Fold this protein.
Amino acid sequence: MNWKAFFAMLARDAHVARRNFVALLFQTFLQPLMFVFIFGRVMVGSGYMPPSYKSLLLPGIMAICMVGTGIWAVAMPLIAEFQFTREIEDRLLAPMEISWLAVEKVVAGTLQSLAAGFMVIPAAWLLLRPGVDLNVPHPLLFAVVAVLVALFSATGGLALGCSMQQTHIGLMFSLIVAPMIFFGCTYYPWSALEKFPILQRAVLVNPLVYASEGLRGTMVPQFPHLPLLAVVIGLVFFNALLLATGLRSFHGKSVS
Amino acid sequence: MLAGIRTRDLRKVYTSAPPVAAGTGGFSFGAPKPKAKGQQPKPEIVALDGISLDIAPGEIFCLLGPNGAGKSTTVGVLTTRVRPTSGQAFIGEFDVWQSQVTVKRLIGVVAQRPNLDFSLTAREILTFHGAYFGLSSHERAKRAEALLERFKLTDRADQMVRGFSGGMMQRLSIARAMMHDPQVLFLDEPSAGLDPQTRLLLWEIVREYNHSGKTILLTTHNMEEADALCKRLAIIDHGRVIALGTPRELKASVPGGYLLRLRLGVHSPDLLQRLQGLAGVREVRATDGNGADLYADRGGPLVAEVANLAAAAGVELCDVHISEPSLENLFLHHTGRSLRE
């Protein structure tokens, strides 16, 4: 394995992310923070939502930010670079096995997703306070869940980025990302679906459910949430599945 | 280490993907789904049909052929981007498909379409490329500076390449391919879209690079370029090598060298027979429509005699086109088609 080439490519991605930092900031945080403001501040302040909703909302917003960032960071460049600009060709010709380039993309996406997750906590907390009751009894478990969520976003980005046509980017968001967010237990806990038993079981095929429930279970465990073992098993399963399909599609795109 | 290029019976058959509308609406994860019973088999496109080449270390070799002849697929196979259906390809002593990483260290590739990293400046494109190949930061900076200077890009070195003209992008692509000092340089139609001045600069740089012992494989459909640069060339059509040799040898292999393309009012086998009898005419071939191709060892002086024979046979001579000895004539002689068709 050529680690020099691998780290040079990570450095390239970091350099590009730094260069686009302000745009990335708006792209990642603007919409979720507006949501936080309206639902957490305006709706709670005017009495339409209970005050405890603030604490319930924060892990879900963190999950949305992390998953959105990872998918965007990995899928969008891959779609453009394989189909339109072909920018990736230079890196495919670097002296390294091509699957490692896909792994590098996943690592870069994971790091960006983690950065987005940890930046949204203070931002949302500032918007929502007072009344946010964060409680992290097991920091290590929280870190494991956060890393698994970030990995899910990046492997999801790899699988999507290598299987989407450029003309279908809009469809990707309206048919895959948007339903994933709305049925991903981000704005409500999974237990809130009790009155909709079929839907409650159906959403379990959505990996974002495990991401938001996992963050909820490790950041605000006072609310009902899925058992953390189920969360870890679910995320590990989906990460492995998405990584395997993503690597396969990446190989198919790289070599004709 | 000097490295040449060798291929043995390379074949590449593409099976095109099913149309999007007929499939799953464009979404598919992983491999294509297995075919349902009774479904039509995918159409097969033979891109390479047994290409065998031996290119010596330090040679400038050219693949000449029309669009779709298989030039880029050959380059793709040799540069690890296209997996051959059968056959073998070697760079130096290394099998391209068994030692991909080693081979990638030995080669530099300029693709047919610009594929520069649009998120970076010109200088960064070179330095990051150097970093992928493990060059130290001092070495990267030094080489990038020298290449930017050589390719006349110094004044735009720190600008994003998005705004570069086609010619500048092409120069930078070539500079990038040379950045890690590869033993074998692949240039896939490098001068397409370049102005004459830049083309001359490119030729000069290619010759200079070759003088340092490097092997260069160039594809083109520009005969002038092949003639000016290459020591040897292969003419490719429909995935097969149809002629191979030095430009001089190949041109000499065309009967007579000169080609007179005639367009006649009517098809007249009798006239073609008589044309064959003219002094200096080596070969006469009927072409599509009412035309004829005359291969001869002289050009202009024959026109009057051809016109006289046509008049005597009562056949109208609508058009005569004379080509001097060239690779175009050679291509035409082997395939019956023009390179530009």
